[in-house]
C-alpha cells in the first residue's frame, strides 16, 4: 500500500511538472513582444507597415511601383516571394498571410561592405501557425529549395533555407509568435543574442508614443538612425566626400517619420532628435528660429545640389578658431557680418572628369559694411603677398580675387571646405564666392537672363511643397547632378547607378529639410517627379502656323531676343538679300535690305546709353550693326576693301563696359579688329595668320589677361593678346587639320586654364595657356574615312559633344569620350550636326542631310523624336519651354518659315 501511494505521488508530481512547464511555454508564446526591441542597434533604417495590400495598390495607382519595380533589389524581392508563393499551402498565398500585419523591415550595413535586411513578421492566429508550419514542410519537400537545415543557437532553433534556382538563401526562427527572417544568418544570430541577454530596449525608444500609422493616408513609420547613415552612404560614395557626409549627419541622432504617397511624390515628415555629442553640427549651429529660402532669385536653374543654412547668426557655423594672419581680424569681421542665410551650391557638370563648380552664398546684414570689408581684405592679402590687388569689372559688378586658401571654410566652417583660392562678388545683399572667376561670370549671366529658381515654373511648384522656413536644407536635382553622382560614386556601385539611371532621373527633385522646434527638428523629406505636360511622352510633332514670305528664304532662322522685353525672336534673310525679323507673336518686325548675303550668324550686344540690344553681322566685305528698328547704328556699316571675303565675326567686350571690339577674318587668314567707331586697332590691320581659320576666334579672360584663341585649318592654334602679340608657348601644332573650334575651361591663371581641341582625324588634345600639352587621346577611328569635329552647344557654348562621321554614319560622343549613339543615313555626304542643351537631360541633337533635305531630331538617349524626319536642308533653331516642358522647332522651307512643337518622352 505505501509503495502504491509513493508511485501515485511520484506520478502526480511528474504530471504536474509537465503541466506547469507546458503552461509556462504556452504563456510565453502568448506574450506579446514589441518587435522594435528585437531590432539591432546598428540598424540604419527601420520601416513599419500595417497594410501590405493597400500600400502595393497605392504604389501601382501612383505609378511609383512601375518605377521602383525596375530596381534590381525589387526584382530579387519579387522573385523570392514568387518562389515561396509557389510552394505555399492551399489557396492562402503569402500576400494574404502578410496583409494587415504590423511588419518591421530593418536595413543594416554588414561588414562595412554590403547591405542586409531583416523582416519581423507576427503570427497572429492558429490558422497562421498552421500555414507557416505547412509552408515550412513544403519548402523542405520542394526541388526549388535545397536542403533545409535546422540548428540550435543559444537555445533558439534556426532554420537555414537555400534556393537552388537563384542561388540565394535565408535564415529564420520563431520567437513568441513572431517570425524573424533574413538573408544574413549573422544578423539573425545577432538578434538571438539580443533576446537572450535580457530585456532589450527598443531602438526607437525616444519615439515610443509616436505612431503615424493611426493617421489616415499614412503607409509606414520610418525610423532613421543618423549615426549609422555615414556607413550606409560609405557603401556608395568615395572617401573624398565622406568627411562632409559624416559631419552633416551629426545634426541629429534619430528620427521617426511618416510615409505618405501622392501622385508621383513621396513625403516623409516627422521629428528628429538633436545630436548632443560634442563638436556635432547641432551643437555648432545651436539653431533657434528657422529662416526662409530668400536667395531664389540668385540660384541658377543649372544648380545640381545645394546645402542651405538658415539661422539668425550665421557665424555660429564657424568653430572657434584663431587666425593669426595679417588679415585674420578682417576675416573674422567679415564672418560676423553674415546673417540669416548661407549656402554651398554645386553647379551642373558636363563630364565625370570635371570637378564640379561650386559657389558659396552668404547673406549680408549690412551690404555696405560687407563691401568695405571685402575691399579691405583684398588690399591686405595683396600687401601680405606683395602683389597688386586684382579686381575685374563684369558689367555692373566687381569681382575681387581673395587669394586666401580655404577662405569659405574660415568664414563658414568645415562644410565649406575645398576652395584653393577665392573670387568674390557682391550681388545685392549676398556675397558670392567661387574658386574660379568663370563660374561667377556664368552665374552673373544666369541672374541677368533670369535663368533662376524664382523664375522657373517647375522649381516654383517643387518649392511650394517644401518647408518655407528651415535651419538646414539639402536640395538635389538628380538630372543636373548626374555627372557629379557618377564622379563621386565608388567604382563598384557606378554600374548599378548607370543601370538605374532612368529611375534616378525620373524622380529628379529631392528636398531634405530640418526646422528647429524646441529641442527637436521638424524633418521633411520630399522626393518628387517633376510635372509633365499632357503631351509629354508622345514624341510627336505638332505643326503650328508658320509664315510665308514673298521670296525664298536662304538662311536658317537665327535666334535673337527682342530688344525691349527680351522675348524670343528670329531673323532670316531672303533671296533678295533682305533681312527679316519675326517677333515672338509670329508677326513681321523690322527689315533691312543688305544687298549681299550674310556671312555669319546674327549676334546681339547691349549698346548705347539705353543699353538696348543691337544686332551685329557681316557680309562679304562689310560689318553691319543695326538697332531694333532695322536702322544702322552711327558709323555703320564698316566698309572693308571689296577684295576681302570675310569668314567669321567675333565680338569682344574686354571689361564688360560696352567698349566692344569687332574681329573678322578673311579667306586668306588675315584678322582685322575695329572698335564701335570704326577705328582699326593697332596690331590688327591686319594680323596675318599662316592659314585660314577653322572657326570663329574665341576670347578668354584669365586672371586679368585677355587671350584670343585662333584655331587654323592646318592644325595650328594661336593665343594672342589685345595687341595681337603671340603668348609664349604658342602656336601649338596639333599635327593634324582642324575643322572646328576649341572649348576652354577657364582657371585662375594661364597655367590652370585648359583648352580642348579635336582634330579632323580624332585626336583630342588638351593644353593650357602656357602652351603646354596636357593630354592627347586618340579616338577610335573605324576607318580612314572617319572624320571628327567638336560641336559646341548652340545656346551658350558651355558644353560640347564630339561628332564622328564615316560613310553615312554619324556618332555622337560626350565630353568623357563615351559614345552616346550612332545613326546611319542614306548619303555619305557630310551632315550638319547641332547640339542643344537646356539643362539636365533636356537635350536635342539635330542632324541634317543637305542632299535629301532631311533633318532628324534625337533626344538625350538618341531616340528619334516624332518617329520621322522633317524636310529641311539648313540649320534649325530649337527653343525650350520650361513651364510646359516642351520644345519649339523653327526651320525654313522655300519661302516659308515653319514652326513645330514637340515633347520628348522618357
Automatic annotation (TrEMBL):
It comes from Pontibacter mangrovi. Keywords: Membrane, Transmembrane, Transmembrane helix. This is DUF3352 domain-containing protein. It comes from the Bacteria. The chain crosses the membrane at residues 5-23.
Amino acid at each position: 500500500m505505501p509503495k502504491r501511494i509513493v508511485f501515485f505521488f511520484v506520478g502526480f508530481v511528474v504530471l504536474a511538472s509537465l503541466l506547469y512547464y507546458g503552461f509556462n511555454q504556452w504563456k510565453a508564446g502568448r506574450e506579446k513582444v514589441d518587435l522594435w526591441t528585437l531590432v539591432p542597434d546598428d540598424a540604419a533604417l527601420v520601416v513599419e507597415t500595417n497594410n501590405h495590400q493597400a500600400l502595393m495598390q497605392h504604389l501601382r495607382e501612383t505609378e511609383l511601383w512601375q518605377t521602383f519595380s525596375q530596381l534590381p533589389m525589387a526584382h530579387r524581392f519579387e522573385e523570392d516571394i514568387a518562389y515561396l508563393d509557389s510552394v505555399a499551402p492551399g489557396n492562402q498565398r503569402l500576400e494574404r498571410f502578410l496583409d494587415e500585419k504590423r511588419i518591421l523591415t530593418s536595413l543594416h550595413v554588414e561588414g562595412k561592405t554590403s547591405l542586409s535586411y531583416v523582416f519581423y513578421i507576427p503570427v497572429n492566429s492558429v490558422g497562421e501557425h498552421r500555414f507557416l508550419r505547412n509552408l515550412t514542410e513544403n519548402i523542405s519537400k520542394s526541388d526549388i529549395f535545397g536542403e533545409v537545415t535546422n540548428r540550435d543557437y543559444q537555445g533558439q532553433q534556426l532554420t537555414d533555407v537555400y534556393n537552388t534556382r537563384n542561388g540565394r538563401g535565408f535564415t529564420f526562427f520563431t520567437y513568441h509568435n513572431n517570425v524573424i527572417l533574413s538573408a544574413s544568418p549573422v544578423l539573425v544570430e545577432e538578434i538571438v543574442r539580443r533576446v537572450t541577454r535580457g530585456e532589450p530596449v527598443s531602438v526607437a525608444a525616444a519615439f515610443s508614443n509616436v505612431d503615424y500609422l493611426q493617421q489616415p493616408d499614412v503607409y509606414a513609420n520610418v525610423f532613421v538612425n543618423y549615426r549609422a547613415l555615414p556607413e550606409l552612404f560609405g557603401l556608395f560614395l568615395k572617401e573624398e566626400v565622406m568627411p562632409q557626409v559624416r559631419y552633416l549627419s551629426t545634426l541629429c541622432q534619430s528620427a521617426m517619420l511618416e510615409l505618405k504617397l501622392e501622385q508621383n511624390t513621396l513625403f516623409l515628415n516627422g521629428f528628429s532628435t538633436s545630436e548632443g555629442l560634442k563638436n556635432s553640427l547641432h551643437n555648432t549651429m545651436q539653431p533657434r528660429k528657422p529662416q526662409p529660402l530668400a536667395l531664389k532669385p540668385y540660384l541658377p536653374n543649372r544648380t545640381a545640389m545645394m546645402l542651405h543654412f538658415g539661422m539668425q547668426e550665421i557665424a555660429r557655423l564657424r568653430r572657434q578658431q584663431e587666425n593669426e594672419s595679417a588679415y585674420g581680424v578682417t576675416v573674422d569681421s567679415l564672418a560676423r557680418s553674415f546673417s540669416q542665410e548661407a549656402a554651398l551650391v554645386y553647379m551642373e557638370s558636363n563630364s565625370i572628369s570635371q570637378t564640379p563648380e561650386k559657389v558659396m552664398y552668404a547673406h549680408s546684414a549690412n551690404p555696405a559694411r560687407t563691401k568695405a570689408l571685402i575691399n579691405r581684405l583684398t588690399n591686405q592679402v595683396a600687401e601680405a603677398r606683395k602683389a597688386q590687388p586684382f579686381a575685374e569689372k563684369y558689367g555692373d559688378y566687381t569681382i575681387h580675387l581673395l587669394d586666401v586658401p580655404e577662405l569659405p571654410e574660415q568664414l563658414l566652417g568645415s562644410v565649406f571646405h575645398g576652395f584653393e583660392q577665392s573670387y568674390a562678388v557682391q550681388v545685392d545683399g549676398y556675397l558670392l564666392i567661387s574658386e574660379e572667376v568663370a563660374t561667377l561670370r556664368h552665374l552673373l549671366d544666369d541672374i541677368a537672363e533670369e535663368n533662376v529658381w524664382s523664375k522657373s515654373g517647375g522649381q516654383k511648384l517643387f518649392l511650394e511643397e517644401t518647408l518655407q522656413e528651415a535651419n538646414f536644407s539639402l536640395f538635389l536635382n538628380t538630372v543636373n547632378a548626374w555627372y557629379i553622382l557618377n564622379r563621386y560614386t565608388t567604382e563598384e556601385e557606378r554600374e548599378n547607378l548607370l543601370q538605374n539611371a532612368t529611375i534616378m532621373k525620373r524622380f529628379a527633385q529631392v528636398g531634405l529639410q530640418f526646422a528647429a522646434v524646441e529641442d527637436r527638428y521638424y524633418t521633411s523629406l520630399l522626393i518628387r517627379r517633376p510635372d509633365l505636360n499632357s503631351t509629354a511622352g508622345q514624341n510627336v510633332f505638332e505643326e503650328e502656323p508658320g509664315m510665308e514670305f514673298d521670296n525664298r528664304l536662304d538662311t536658317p532662322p537665327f535666334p535673337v531676343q527682342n530688344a525691349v522685353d527680351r522675348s524670343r525672336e528670329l531673323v532670316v534673310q531672303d533671296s533678295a538679300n533682305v533681312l527679316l525679323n519675326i517677333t515672338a507673336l509670329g508677326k513681321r518686325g523690322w527689315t533691312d535690305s543688305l544687298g549681299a548675303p550674310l556671312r555669319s550668324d546674327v549676334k546681339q550686344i547691349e549698346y548705347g546709353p539705353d543699353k538696348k540690344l543691337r544686332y551685329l553681322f557681316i557680309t562679304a566685305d562689310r560689318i553691319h550693326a543695326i538697332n531694333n528698328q532695322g536702322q544702322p547704328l552711327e558709323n555703320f556699316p564698316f566698309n572693308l576693301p571689296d577684295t576681302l571675303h570675310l569668314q567669321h565675326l567675333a565680338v569682344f567686350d574686354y571689361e564688360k563696359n560696352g567698349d566692344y571690339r569687332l574681329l573678322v577674318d578673311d579667306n586668306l587668314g588675315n584678322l582685322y579688329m575695329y572698335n564701335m567707331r570704326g577705328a582699326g586697332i593697332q596690331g590688327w590691320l591686319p594680323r596675318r595668320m599662316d592659314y585660314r581659320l577653322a572657326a570663329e576666334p574665341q576670347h578668354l579672360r584669365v586672371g586679368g589677361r585677355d587671350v584670343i584663341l585662333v584655331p587654323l585649318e592646318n592644325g595650328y592654334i594661336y593665343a594672342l593678346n589685345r595687341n595681337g602679340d603671340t603668348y609664349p608657348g604658342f602656336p601649338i601644332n596639333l599635327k593634324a587639320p582642324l575643322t572646328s573650334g576649341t572649348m576652354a575651361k577657364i582657371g585662375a591663371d594661364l597655367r590652370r586654364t585648359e583648352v580642348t581641341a579635336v582634330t579632323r582625324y580624332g585626336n583630342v588634345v588638351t593644353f593650357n595657356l602656357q602652351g603646354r600639352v596636357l593630354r592627347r587621346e586618340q579616338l577610335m577611328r573605324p576607318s580612314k574615312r572617319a572624320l571628327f569635329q567638336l560641336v559646341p552647344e548652340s545656346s551658350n557654348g558651355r558644353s560640347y559633344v564630339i561628332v564622328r562621321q564615316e560613310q553615312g554614319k554619324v556618332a555622337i560622343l560626350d565630353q568623357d569620350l563615351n559614345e552616346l549613339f550612332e545613326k546611319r543615313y542614306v548619303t555619305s555626304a557630310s551632315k550638319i550636326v547641332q547640339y542643344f542643351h537646356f539643362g539636365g537631360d533636356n537635350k536635342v541633337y539635330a542632324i541634317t542631310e543637305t542632299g535629301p533635305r532631311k533633318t532628324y531630331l534625337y533626344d538625350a538617349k538618341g531616340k528619334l523624336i516624332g518617329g520621322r524626319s522633317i524636310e529641311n536642308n539648313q540649320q534649325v533653331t530649337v527653343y525650350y519651354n520650361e513651364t510646359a516642358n516642351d520644345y519649339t522647332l523653327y526651320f525654313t522651307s522655300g519661302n516659308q518659315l515653319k514652326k513645330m512643337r514637340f515633347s520628348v518622352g522618357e
